[in-house]
Specification:
By secondary structure, the chain is an alpha+beta fold. The protein is 49% helix and 13% strand. The structure holds adenosine-5'-diphosphate and magnesium ion.
Length: 722
């Protein structure tokens, strides 16, 4: 029998019914209904303006103000006809969340009337307060001006809430002095960098027509659903998104009976509501299924241009959270909501390509395409080897630390999985006789005889943090609650750097009179000699790999964010971002400061929560039970029985531990050291272990205290009751 408050929650949940919303509609009726898309613009804009907009979207560059005025007018007419009274510049600060500044279209007139106005200037530029968002010291309040600027490549859309409609305009967010304060600006710059370098290589390879190159992304989102009646009784879930305490249930995920199982009806109805909203917003949701852990699910879209995919990913998180609430759920996007049970990731599928050559990470079927593919793939290998620690650092959050390196998600060591076929080809290149002048060598591995790659490599390696999956790479270490922008920026930038190096080398080979094929293989051989150590096809969880990776291959194992975030301060990383024009030294340093602060904040909030819960919820329940138990034992004694004191002693022991650990945690919280690195170390090395010790005492108490007194919903209830 659970405690009264848990009992009330259980009753509430039992009464819940799947919440149907509107009648089902066809894809045609739903798709993009709320999007100010190219199709809408084509109809609404004068031909000249539309062509200019289209060109700007495809080729980048600025839209002049007269055009912007026409677009603003059309956008306003479209949005107001659909009930919008307000518009919002939507931007993406360094917090993984979405921020919005809302303004009304309204302008009152002298005659008492009011009209809706919207100009090109208002569309193109907004002015939120730059100092209220994390900026790592770039902006202080006395120089607070920040600007949002319309990102024409990501379509505007309407956000429906029960009492109205808002026109949302995706924007970049920069400081008055032009420094990026957001996640979109560097993403756009990194696309530019990859475009510049890929173009060079494609032209060198003899492609006559080369369209702009862009990166693509499809992000698989894992999440948990917990009934909100339980969450209301769990301050930890409410404030930190994860359970800081909780004893593992008798049944966990050992039976593997949840993964791809039938979706519970209440959940499916929720998913359908989410998908319908996403379709209206032009987000191409494509797959839905149960994940490995009980209560865990996944949604994945069809991949899109990285910039749009990133905005759509943010929208997906927003819609998931809001819709869950409507259905009596809380959607947990935290990387590790429950100890002892699989956490949630966000696999970022990434590729680069263009309209003329297609997906440049697709092996294709002709030898010529093969050569091109091998060079682009070689660039990835080189990049991940040179900047593996950077890739680790862009997925470094307090939440993700619970996954990386724990025995479930990819390890914190960044390696590349190529699949046996491709790994074999690259190994041949590494030892290849082809750099010798003998034709025999060329025949062995030359372009004419290269194998055709099977489209689907068949085998998957779930233990690799970075895996080739047929025509793209899957970065599997990204956390479920993270924005995908940071990982994409890192991937694009290291790719640009490696493409630049490869093109430079190849140019030198050609100047030396080498043929394109032999030159390319010589460059690839260098890549494999210097960077082949990052290629690994085995079990990424095995301790033998961790030893081999670090000791023999020289890869780094950056276990916690406190180890990984300082990578952003390394000279090589600063040079990389500066050279590719993606982040200045100041911008990079500010990002380091913001992420370090967020890491410390997250852990300190958890520590304070743990203290509060241990002292005001757990301790009182345990003491009440101790006193009840003491009474019962006394009664037994009075009756001349020999009472068993084991439970009482255990209880006393655990209560002692709880008090001691609480005191230690309080002391640990009292005086954090100065400086972000020392502060992070303190959180990782002092607070986290203390938190874990306190948890062990609390979870021990949960195992002995009378269930009718235990105030916190159990793992069993939260994971299995829907
Ligand atoms: P799996 O679970 O097998 O990894 P999913 O279908 O769940 O596969 O997700 C794969 C994701 O990869 C989807 O979002 C898909 O659109 C995306 N994807 C497919 N091809 C590419 C590509 N060339 N570039 C980027 N993403 C891609
Ligand atoms: Mg998947």
């Amino acid at each position: 029998m659970p405690s009264p408050q848990r009992f009330a929650a259980l009753q509430q949940i039992q009464r819940r019914r799947p919440m149907t919303t509107e009648a089902p509609e066809s894809l045609e009726a739903l798709w993009g209904r709320d999007v100010f898309s190219l199709t809408v613009m084509k109809e609404a804009l004068p031909g000249r303006v539309f062509k200019s907009v289209q060109r700007t979207i495809k080729e980048g560059g600025k839209l002049d103000l007269s055009m912007a005025n026409a677009v603003a007018e059309a956008m306003k007419a479209w949005a107001t006809a659909r009930g919008a009274l307000y518009y919002a510049h939507v931007f993406y600060p360094l917090t993984n969340s979405t921020a919005e500044k809302h303004d009304g279209f309204i302008v009152p007139k002298a005659d008492g009337q009011a009209i809706a106005t919207f100009t090109g200037k208002l569309l193109v530029q907004g002015e939120p307060d730059g100092s209220s968002f994390p900026n790592g010291g770039i902006r202080s309040t006395f120089e607070a001006r920040g600007y949002t600027a319309w990102d024409i490549t990501s379509p505007a859309y309407l956000m429906h809430t029960p009492n109205g409609v808002t026109l949302c305009i995706p924007t970049v967010f920069v400081s008055w002095t032009g420094e990026a304060l957001d996640k979109k600006t560097p993403l756009l710059r990194s696309n530019g960098a990859v475009n510049r370098q890929a173009q060079r290589l494609l032209q060198l390879l003899g492609n006559n027509e080369v369209a702009p190159v862009n990166s693509s992304c499809g992000a698989e989102q894992e999440y948990f659903l917990v009934d909100s009646a339980f969450v209301a009784l769990r301050p930890d879930l409410l404030l930190s998104g994860r359970t800081i305490f909780g004893k593992p249930p008798a049944k966990g995920q050992q039976f593997d009976d949840h993964y791809f199982g039938a979706i519970p009806e209440r959940v499916q109805v929720f998913m359908q509501d989410v998908e319908r909203q996403l379709y209206r917003l032009g987000v191409p949701a494509k797959t839905r299924h149960n994940e490995v852990a009980p209560g865990q699910f996944e949604i994945a879209p069809f991949h899109e241009a990285a910039n749009v995919a990133t905005d759509h990913q943010q929208l997906t998180m927003t819609v998931l959270r809001n819709t869950a609430r409507k259905h009596g759920f809380t959607c947990l996007l935290h990387e590790k909501p429950f100890a002892g049970i699989n956490g949630s990731g966000k696999h970022v599928n990434w590729s680069i390509g263009n309209a003329t050559q297609g997906n440049l990470l697709d092996p294709g079927s002709t030898p010529h395409q093969n050569l091109q593919f091998l060079l682009f793939c070689g660039a990835v290998i080189r990049g991940v080897h040179r900047f593996g620690p950077l890739l680790r650092s862009v997925v470094a959050t307090a939440g993700n630390d619970h996954r990386l390196g724990a025995n479930e998600a990819p390890p914190a060591i960044i390696s590349v999985y190529l699949g046996s076929q491709l790994e074999d080809v690259f190994n041949q290149i590494r030892v290849g006789e082809i750099t010798g002048s003998s034709d025999g060598g060329v025949m062995q591995l030359g372009v004419d005889t290269l194998p055709e790659f099977a489209k689907d490599p068949g085998d998957r390696n779930r233990t690799s943090p970075f895996a080739f999956t047929g025509n793209r790479f899957e970065f599997r270490a990204v956390g479920s609650g993270q924005s995908v922008a940071g990982p994409l920026v890192a991937l694009n930038t290291i790719m640009a750097d490696s493409l630049q190096w490869i093109t430079d080398q190849l140019e030198a080979e050609l100047q030396r009179g080498q043929s394109l094929e032999l030159g390319a293989f010589a460059v690839l051989r260098q890549v494999m000699e210097q960077h082949g150590a990052v290629v690994f096809g085995g079990d990424g969880y095995a301790t033998s790999w961790h030893e081999q990776a670090v000791q023999e291959r020289g890869l780094e194992n950056l276990r916690s964010s406190a180890d990984a975030l300082p990578v952003l301060r390394r000279e090589a990383v600063r040079t990389l971002f500066e050279q590719q024009g993606v982040l200045s030294a100041v911008e990079l340093e500010s990002r380091y400061e913001v992420y370090a602060e967020q890491y410390c904040l997250a852990i300190e909030v958890e520590a304070r929560l743990a203290l509060q819960m241990a002292r005001t919820l757990v301790y009182p329940a345990a003491v009440r039970y101790l006193s009840e138990l003491g009474g019962a034992l006394q009664e037994q004694q009075a009756m001349g029985l020999h009472p068993n004191l084991a439970v009482r002693n255990q209880l006393g022991d655990l209560l002692n531990q709880l008090n001691n650990h609480c005191d230690a945690l309080e002391t640990g919280l009292a005086e954090p050291p100065h400086g972000s690195e020392a502060h992070m170390r303190h959180c990782a090395d002092q607070l986290m272990p203390l938190l874990l010790e306190l948890r062990q005492a609390v979870d021990g108490l949960e195992a002995v205290v009378d269930d009718t007194l235990w105030p916190l919903p159990s793992y069993q209830e939260m994971l299995f009751m829907r």
